[in-house]
């Protein structure tokens, strides 16, 4: 039975994660709105909203999956359809924000995250609810309010309740860039920290972005040969090694997403060589691209724990090591608080603040 406080909430979803939308609707005690999203024979996206939404508060549940470009177009068209149907407010519930890794300028590239933010606001979205942005500064790209929820309380609870002898654990940062996040977890669990230094592949922060391009040769013959911009020395990454003691301990790697697992597998092999007897990987978004399930199954990793911000049922069928934590309760509570104009600060209290 719908309560008066949720009677004008309408939850619709695209094709990216209908199961999550069903969970959110069930927790709020509302019926999902009738919305059909399909592709015509020419692959154009069609959206048909069955019910009247005039003056209603619309919540569109759509996340980023491997079919990322279709996910984005579905979201934009659904939002614009709601806007032109005189909805009171249109809130995008986007647990995993697509293109969030492309939030820095690269050589002759662009900041795709900003482009996507402008498209979302232009389509009619008046508010965004998301989880664990790759960089929290992404919120500044939007001209509408953005609530960046945290999955860390769920992951911390999992460590305390589902990892036997977790007091004998050490929180591991897969690279120096994720040391802040690992430190925050370690402080809340009263555990030690280890950092993996040196990687087999180039880190994101070391990718060529054009800032270190050598200057053009000066054409003027009056310039002294010793004057000019000095050449930036190239970085030489050391062999992969662990800074910190993991011998005879449980190693818990934490990150915001698991996409390409090769770096996690390489880190797990080094941790195993250093004496870690159990290895866990915890992350908010489990994209698990390409042959990730097979690599995880054949690796020293004992368990990969992710939330259901991204659907990964197929990957779970291929690998028994993948476990899922349901975070629909957090998203439904955020929707309820926004709808009732209540403070959101309660959802951010006592959570891991570092990225």
TrEMBL record:
One of its GO terms (molecular function) is magnesium ion binding. Coiled coil: none annotated. GO terms for cellular component: cytoplasm; ribose phosphate diphosphokinase complex. Residues 9-124 form the Ribose-phosphate pyrophosphokinase N-terminal domain. InterPro entries: Pribosyltran_N (IPR029099), PRTase-like (IPR029057), PRTase_dom (IPR000836), Rib-P_diPkinase (IPR005946). SMART domains: Pribosyltran_N (SM01400). Keywords: Nucleotide biosynthesis. Residues 202-223 are annotated as: Disordered. It holds the Pfam family Pribosyl_synth. Gene3D superfamilies: 3.40.50.2020. It comes from the Eukaryota. GO terms for biological process: 5-phosphoribose 1-diphosphate biosynthetic process; purine nucleotide biosynthetic process. Belongs to the ribose-phosphate pyrophosphokinase family. This is Ribose-phosphate pyrophosphokinase N-terminal domain-containing protein. The lineage of its organism: Eukaryota, Metazoa, Ecdysozoa, Arthropoda, Hexapoda.
């Amino acid at each position: 039975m719908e309560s008066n406080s949720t009677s004008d909430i309408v939850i619709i979803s695209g094709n990216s994660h209908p199961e999550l939308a069903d969970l959110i609707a069930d927790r709020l005690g509302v019926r999902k709105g009738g919305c059909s999203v399909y592709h015509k024979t020419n692959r154009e996206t069609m959206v048909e909203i069955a019910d009247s939404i005039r003056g209603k508060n619309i919540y569109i549940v759509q996340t980023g999956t491997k079919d990322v470009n279709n996910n984005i177009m579905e979201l934009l068209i659904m939002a614009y359809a709601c806007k032109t149907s005189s909805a009171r407010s249109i809130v995008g519930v986007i647990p995993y924000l697509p293109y969030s890794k492309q939030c820095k300028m690269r050589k002759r590239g662009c900041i795709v995250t900003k482009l996507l933010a402008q498209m979302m606001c232009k389509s009619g979205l008046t508010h965004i609810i998301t989880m664990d942005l790759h960089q929290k500064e992404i919120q500044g790209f939007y001209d509408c309010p953005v609530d960046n929820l945290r999955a860390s309380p769920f992951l911390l609870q999992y460590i305390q309740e589902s990892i036997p002898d977790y007091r004998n654990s050490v929180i591991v940062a897969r690279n120096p860039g994720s040391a802040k996040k690992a430190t925050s977890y370690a402080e809340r669990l009263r555990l030690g920290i280890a950092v993996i230094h040196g990687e087999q592949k180039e880190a994101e922060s070391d990718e060529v972005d054009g800032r270190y391009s050598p200057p053009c040769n000066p054409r003027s013959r009056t310039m002294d040969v010793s004057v000019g911009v000095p050449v930036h020395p190239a970085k030489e990454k050391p062999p992969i090694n662990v800074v910190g003691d993991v011998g005879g301990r449980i190693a818990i790697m934490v990150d915001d997403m698991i996409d390409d697992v090769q770096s996690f597998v390489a880190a797990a092999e080094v941790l195993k060589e250093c004496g870690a007897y159990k290895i866990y990987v915890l992350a908010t978004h489990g994209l698990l691209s390409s042959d990730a399930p097979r690599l995880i199954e054949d690796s020293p990793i004992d368990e990969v724990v992710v939330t259901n911000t991204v659907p990964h049922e197929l990957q779970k069928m291929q690998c028994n090591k993948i476990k899922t934590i349901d975070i629909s309760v957090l998203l439904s509570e955020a929707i309820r608080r926004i709808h009732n104009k209540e403070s959101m600060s309660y959802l951010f209290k006592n959570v891991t603040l570092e990225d």
